[in-house]
């Protein structure tokens, strides 16, 4: 008593491949975003700090330990 959702003669659409031109801007954006995140988790404390105080450190404290960055 199972019924098919699509008729038996329905055409299956072809999958179109993505070109490198279409993927490159997104890959660059995600790469830069990952580097900024890595900076704030790993290096935003000390002489190279962009933000004064310990606010950023407190927000990413557990992530620092999870990734193996020392902070104490």
UniProtKB/TrEMBL annotation:
<dbReference type="Pfam" id="PF09489">
    <property type="entry name" value="CbtB"/>
</dbReference>
<keyword id="KW-1133">Transmembrane helix</keyword>
<dbReference type="InterPro" id="IPR012667">
    <property type="entry name" value="CbtB_put"/>
</dbReference>
<keyword id="KW-0472">Membrane</keyword>
<keyword id="KW-0812">Transmembrane</keyword>
<feature type="transmembrane region" description="Helical">
    <location>
        <begin position="23"/>
        <end position="42"/>
    </location>
</feature>
<protein>
    <submittedName>
        <fullName>CbtB-domain containing protein</fullName>
    </submittedName>
</protein>
């Amino acid at each position: 008593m199972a019924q098919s959702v699509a008729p038996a003669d329905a055409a299956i659409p072809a999958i179109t491949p993505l070109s490198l031109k279409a993927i490159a801007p997104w890959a660059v954006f995600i790469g830069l975003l990952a580097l900024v995140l890595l900076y704030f988790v790993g290096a935003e404390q000390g002489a190279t700090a962009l933000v004064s105080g310990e606010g950023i450190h407190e927000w990413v404290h557990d992530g620092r330990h999870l990734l193996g960055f020392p902070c104490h």
